Amino acid sequence: MAHIDYYFATISPYTYLCGVRPAEIAAAHGATLTYRPIDLMQVFSRTGGQAPADRHPSRQDYRAQDLRRRAMATGKPLIPKPAFFPTNPAPSSYAIIAAQADGSGDLAALVAGITRACWAEDRDIASDDVIRDCLTAAGFPAALADSGLLAGAEAYHRNTEDAVRLGVFGAPFFITDSDERFWGQDRLDDLESYLAGRT
Questions:
Q1: Which CATH superfamily is 3-195 part of?
Q2: Largest CA-CA distance found in the chain, in angstroms, rounded
Q3: Which residues are tagged catalytic?
Q4: Cβ distance 135 to 110 under 8 Å?
Q5: Residue 74 in 3-state DSSP?
Q6: For helices 90-102 and 128-137, what crossing angle results, to 10°?
Q7: Are 172 and 18 in contact (CB under 8 A)?
C-alpha cells in the first residue's frame, strides 16, 4: 500500500484549491494519507522563497492571474484579497493535528473547510470561533480547538523541520513513500497518474 505525506499550509490558496481531492486520489488507489500542516513562511525563508507580499511585482501579478485561472478550472470561488490574509496559521494547524489524532470526523473536509473559510468566506482562520465551526462541520468535537495545544505546537514544528529536511519548498507538496515529489495543486493529476502506475 502506497503512502503519501501531504505537506500544506492552512493559509495557502493552492491548498484551498486542492479541496478534498488529495484524499479522493489516495482512496481511489488504496493509498494512505498523512496530513502535515507546516509553517509556510518558515519554509519559504529557509529554502530560498519569499512571502507573497515580498515578491517582485511581476511575480505578484502572475500569482494573481494564476489563482484566478486555477479557481476557474477547479470551479471553486476565490476571493483575490481576503480580509484576513495573512493571518496566524498556527491555531488552525494545531486543530488539524488534534483532529487527525482524534480520528472521529472527516479530516479532508476539515482542511477544505478551514482553507475555504479564508479564501472563499472572508473569515479569520486564527479565530477560535471559526476553527470550532470548521471542526463541527467536519464531524469533530469543537473542543479540539482548545486541546492538545502543546502537542500540536510540537507536531507543527516537527512537520516544518521535516519539510525543510525533505526538500519541501512550497505548499501543497506531496511526497510518496517511494520519494516521488509533487508540488502544487496543479500536480494532483501527476500524483494520480503515478499512483496508477502510468508514470
A1: Glutaredoxin (3.40.30.10)
A2: 44
A3: 12
A4: yes
A5: helix
A6: 30
A7: yes
Cα R_g (the chain), whole angstroms: 16
pLDDT at 165 over 90: yes
Taking phi over 0 as left and psi of -120 to 50 as alpha, with beta for the rest, 87 belongs to beta
What does the alpha-carbon distance between residue 96 and residue 32 come to, in Å, rounded to a whole number?
A: 17
Retrieve residue 20's grid coordinates.
478534498
Query: Which amino acid belongs to residue 191?
Result: L
Q: Identify the H or E element spanning 27.
A: helix 21-28
Confidence of residue 1 (pLDDT cuts 50, 70, 90): confident
C-beta atoms surrounding 155 within 10 Å: 20
pLDDT at 8: 98
The residues spanned by each domain of the chain are 3-195
Say if residue 77 is exposed, middle or buried (CB neighbours under 10 Å; 0-12, 13-18, 19+). Answer: exposed
pLDDT tens-digit series, residues 174-187? 999 999 999 999 99
* Angle, vertex CA 12, rays to CA 10 and CA 15, nearest 5: 80
Report strand pairing: 32-37 vs 3-8. Answer: parallel
Average pLDDT over residues 129-144: 98
29-61 pLDDT tens trace: 999 999 999 999 999 999 999 999 999 999 999
